[in-house]
User: What shape does this take?
Amino acid sequence: MEIQKKLDRFFEEIQKDEFLQMRGLGNEVPYFIFDYEPEHELIVRQSIRYFMNRTHLNIKVLNLLKMVIELFDDIGLEGLKQFEEEQGTEALFDALRPTIEEEELVDKIAEAAEQAQIIFITGVGSVFPLVRAHELLNQLHPKVTNVPIVIFYPGTYTGQGLSLFNRFESNGYYRAFSI
Assistant: This one.
């Protein structure tokens, strides 16, 4: 399916009462993955902006890269840059992962969900490998189940697992719905 048709169908679907009221999920969490070919990233971003300017729905768009940068502003980005230059990228990731794993990112998403009808999560590719979509979804399970969450995913979701950029396989994840 060409990307614009897929986006149009998606934006139509999420405005339906059945979606907003999370009917037909069979007691599963209301998590959805909109997967797309990575080369369509700019089209997807533009379509989200276009839709957001025209919708009456209360949708919060959360960009993971912006959220991660905000989390680490306290440390100071210059300090992070210097740490990476001295210790290497892998050491930097190892040092930063505990902050993500301590659920600060998840708490921010949960806070946004309290005031929204739908959450859109973007920027998944920009924060890889520091933040991985399947880990984020697993951490969200106990905190957010009352609002549909849509992750815009540059890659493939098979219903059994995720493949970022159609190159990097994740550990199996099967609790989200493909949309």
